[in-house]
Amino acid sequence: MRRQRSAKIVATLGPASTAPDTIAALFRAGVDVFRLNFSHGERADHQARINTIRALEQETGRPIGILADLQGPKLRLGTFAAGKVRLKSGAHFRLDLDGGPGDAERAPLPHPEIFAALEPGTDLLLNDGNVRLKVESCGDHFAETLVADGGELSDRKGVNVPNAELPLAALTEKDRGDLVFALDAGADWIALSFVQRPDDVAEARKLVANRAGILVKLEKPAAVRRLDEIIELSDALMVARGDLGVEMPPEDVPPIQKQIIHACRRAGKPVIVATQMLESMVHAPVPTRAEASDVATAVYEGADAVMLSAETAAGEFPVEAVRMMDRIVRRVQADPFYNAGLHSDKFFEPEHTSSDAISAAARQVAHTIGAAAICSYTTSGATAVRAARERPDAPILALTSNLQTARKLALVWGLHCVHTSDVTNFGDMVLKATRTAHREGFAEGGQRIVVTAGVPFGTPGATNVLRIAWVES
Questions:
Q1: Active site includes 217?
Q2: Would you say residue 3 lies in a domain?
Q3: pLDDT tens digit sequence for 29-64
Q4: Residue 205 is a catalytic residue
Q5: 192 near 67, Cβ under 8 Å?
Q6: Residue 393's closest CA among 414, 418, 417, 416?
Q7: Catalytic residue at 145?
Q8: Tens-place pLDDT, residues 97-156
Q9: Within its chain, how far is the Cα of 268 from the centroid?
C-alpha cells in the first residue's frame, strides 16, 4: 500500500462514510489519517468507526492514523420566537442574557464571557460572518448594537468576536469527557479547537499525558498573533480556514496560511491545511478548477497534509473526493518546480543538534548517491519528523517498534511507516532496513539506501548514526 506521493490526506468520517466498506474504500483511495469530528455524532458512532479502522489496519498491515477533533467552546445565540428573523442594515439590535426567545429587535446570548470582553466599537460576527453587528454600548449583561451588515438569523447560530481574547478555556466539560473517551479508544492525535493562547495548549498537554499527539487548530487571530509560542507547545498544527476566514477578512487568509506553513516547517512540526478544499464535491463528482488550484497551492507551499471535511463526512461522492485529492497532490509533486520550491527558503536551515545534522546529511547523501530511500529508525517519532523536515528527494521509510508511533507518523510528509521489531546491533539494523526497503517496493537489488538511527538503540531523540547500505536481491 505504498502511496505515490509525499503529502498526506486526512478525511473526516460522518453519515456518508460510516459503513465499513466505505471506510475501506476511502483508505484504498488514498486516506492516511481519519478524522472523527466530536462536534457531531454520539460516542458509540465514533467507537464503531474506530473499530472499523483498526480492523482495516489489521487486514492491510498498514498503520492508520486517527485524529479526534474536539468541539471546543462554540459560542451560539439562543432561540427565536419565530425560528428565524431577518436583520436590516442600519437597524438597532440588542443582545442580552435574558433567556426569552428573540425577535427582530433582540436575541438571547447566553455567554456572559462575551459581554465581559466587549467595548464600544467591537465587531460581532453572527452566522459564520453573514451578519455583522457593531457594539454601541454594553454592560456585563447586555450589548446595544448597530446592524452593519444585515442578513438572516435563526436558532443557535454561531457568534464570533474577532478582535477580542475571551476569558474561555479551550476545553469545555464536554471536551474533557470526549478527550478521555478518545484516549481510551486509542486516538493517535487530539485536535484542540478555538485555541486563543499558549496556556490552552499547556492545559491539554497535562490531560493527554503523552498518550496522543496534540494538534492545535488555528482558528482565532489571537492564536496567530502568538504563533511561535503555540507551535513550540504543539506536536502539529492545522490551518483551519473556516473559522479563521470568519474572524478575519478573506484576503488575509492566504498570506496567513503561508505564514503558518512556513513557521511549522521551520520548527519541524507537521501542518495540515483544511476546510472547503474540494467543497463543491459535496454535491458534484468533480471539483472546480479554483478548488484544484487551492489544494495544489497548499502542496506547493510544503504542507504535510491536506484535509477533506464535509466532502467525505456528508457528501455524495466521498471516495471520488479522496481520489481527486490524491490525483492533484501527485500531479503537483511531479512538477520539477515542486522540489525546487521546497528548498528555496534559507530559514529551513537545520538546527544545531546531532539529530538535525544527521537528518540534513542524510538528505544530501541520498541526493548525491541517488539512494533509493532513506530508512529512519525511530522510537518516539522525533527522528522521522526531523528527517521529513528536510524534504529529501528520496522517500523516507520510518521504521519503529512502537505501533502508536507508526500511526501518529501517518500524518507526516513523506513518511512510509512500518511497524517492526526493534534492533539490537548494527548488523541487525542494516539487514532489517535493506530487507524492508526491498519488501515495501522502495529499492531493488543492487540499489543503495541511507540508514539513520540512534545509539544506544531505542533511545528517543538520539539520532547520531548514518550508514549507506546495499540492497541485496
A1: yes
A2: no
A3: 999 999 999 999 999 999 999 999 999 999 999 999
A4: no
A5: no
A6: 414
A7: no
A8: 998 999 999 999 999 999 999 999 999 999 988 999 999 999 999 999 999 999 999 999
A9: 14
